[in-house]
Amino acid sequence: MSSDKLAQKITTISESKGYHQIDIALVLGSGLAGFIDEIENPCVIPYAQLEGFPGTGVEGHNPNLVIGTIENTTVAVLGGRSHYYEHGDAAIMRLPLETMKAMGINNLLLTNSAGTAHNGLTTGDLMLINDHLNLSGANPLIGEKTNNRFVNMSHAYQAKLQQLMRDSAQSINFPLKEGVYAWFSGPNFETPAEVSMAHKLGADALGMSTVPEVILANFLKMNVVAISNITNPGAGLSEIEISHQQTQDAAAESAENFAKLLKTFLKNFKA
What we know:
The chain is of the alpha/beta class. The chain has helices spanning about 5-15, 85, 95-100, 160-170, 190-200, 210-220, 245-255, 255-270; strands at about 25, 40-45, 65-70, 75-80, 105-115, 125-135, 175-185, 205, 225-230.
């Protein structure tokens, strides 16, 4: 099903619940799906009802699109994403994002769970992404036929939304960190040498998602802001045994701070 038809289907459902305009879309990362519980008067649409939406096969994700309000801001929350490492397709999230854009949503808040590239960040920190490194060798626009594929990524993360996130953190005295996110394809965690390399190249955090969506969102001319929830030290930086379960557990421990920051941001948000 095309993004326009999907948008029409979702809009019909959401309008029947009283939601006629959606201010911002959110994508929730691993272990962060609990944020859906913050949505008031939720309208839940399973991905299975949206033809072409990729299901999420990763624990800690919620395969539903949920529309509702948080702090009087109307949101469309993707409770999980598909990853490049699940399908070998960097553009796996193109249809969901095209659908959000076709619904008239111009703002996108991306979240992920990530590891550190150095000891300046620690488990439990939240990091505002101010730039990224694509170290995967993949790109979601490969195969795009139009000249729009030549996306200018000089300002991939919108300055206005970034400042709003900073101001929101300051207003609640939250120590928001900031830095560069490096995308590795996964699904294996990085080696100590890869962590060291990424740090030398300028990375502060490492993960297996988000960058394809940022590229796609800029292609679609959406405004992007992104947050990493730091769940583990990178390989070689500690004796912690890194695993997906460990990252999920750490994300759950950060859930309260994560929710507080995002709710404050949405309270201050003006579409």
